Amino acid sequence: IVTSLPGLDTLWDLLRASPNAWRLFNENALFIVENILSGPNAILPPVVVEVVRAVILARSKALPFQNLRDLQRLFLFRLFPCFPSIGQSKDNLIKIGPEVLLAAAPSVSVIRSTVATACQISTLSQACLSSYLERLRDPSFRPMHCLDPYLSYINFHGPDGKRVMAWDCVFEGTPAKVVDAGQPNWVEEMRAVRALWIIQLVGEVQYQSHTLDWPKEDVDKLKGMSPADMIDQNNFDEARQKSEEVKSLMQYIATLGEAKQDTYYQLPPPPPFVRWITTSPNRNERFRKLIRHSKDGTPLCMRCPTDDKLWGRTEECLGQEAPGMLIYRELNRPCIARPGASPIEGVEFGSFRQLGFAFWDTWRMHLLGMHGGLHDHQMRGDPFYLFAWESILPNDEVAYLKVELREKGRIDFRGMS
Q1: Structural domain of 241
Q2: Are residue 358 and residue 253 in the same domain, yes or no?
Q3: What are phi and psi for residue 266, nearest 5 degrees?
Q4: Phi-psi bin for 297: left (phi > 0), alpha (psi -120 to 50), beta?
Q5: Which residues pair with 265 in a beta bridge?
Q6: How far is CA 220 from CA 261, 308, 351, in A?
Q7: Which carries the bigger pLDDT value, residue 412 or residue 307?
Q8: Comparing 187 with 344, which gets the higher pLDDT?
Q9: 394 has pLDDT over 80
């Protein structure tokens, strides 16, 4: 029964409640933990399981990383949708499977401490997402939709026929309908869990940096890096980096207090909140769609993505970026070459971070009025939703940004003349 549990957080609750389970764990710690992590009922995705194993190895002083590049480029990078990076091969990646843990022979105390950490990370992730949901459920969250569904920031002209720049466009809006999507689903929660395990692992490695047999240059660099630095690709500008999930959790943790450097790296405890039962991963990815029948009556079918897949709610979607990050990039630095495609070009993610936009799936973003539906004509960079995103920003932030854009526009215009 113990090895059939879905997660280590459930195991920790059982250990604290049952002396018999505690005794059984002491005799079979590694066997129990590995069966939970790799079993058919496992809640954690395989990439996160590897980070859990890495934490156990770190606490056992048996890290498989010979230098900073091993940790950052060959292990952590592939855990996020940013992989593969430019010029990087998939052939030489570091994977941490059950055999690596078995060879390291971690002690029972190390394994038990990691089980406790898993429970804390599960709780912290839910507390963080709960704080975002509270803000979304607050009456002050009032996104607006433009009355004109075909508005354009590029081809808008004033009464005199002259083109109006995006930051000076004024469109009439109406309150968008906002629907509560309920508790976070598996994909949304695992985005937060994944980020927390990254933060935990980086903290563990930095904590024992003085004992690492790494080049001195790597150790010195490691000490000055944040967990988000481990994910970002240095050849990308800030808007294109993929560490926002980690940054969001780091910011949330900072509101709770500082992490402790005790026997192991310890994140601060979460505040009181109502926990929920983590849902199982949705594996309803595709279905067979009948196209036609051949002359002999044989049905001809093709595999099509399910609506759950298109809404970003299935297991495979964890390997994709949250849709909010894709829309944000259109706001921050539009792909369209013509200037003025975004009314708030250069906007920072901070205000959107407070609402959890780095984690939510397409379904939730749609119900919030921040993303189109499956059959809407609007794309993620459509001005209709850029308008909606701008509408939820603080007025002073928008005003300050547009002053800068007007000044930049004047400078660019003078440079062309």
Answers
A1: 2-131+183-266
A2: no
A3: -130, 120
A4: left
A5: 261
A6: 19, 45, 33
A7: 307
A8: 187
A9: yes
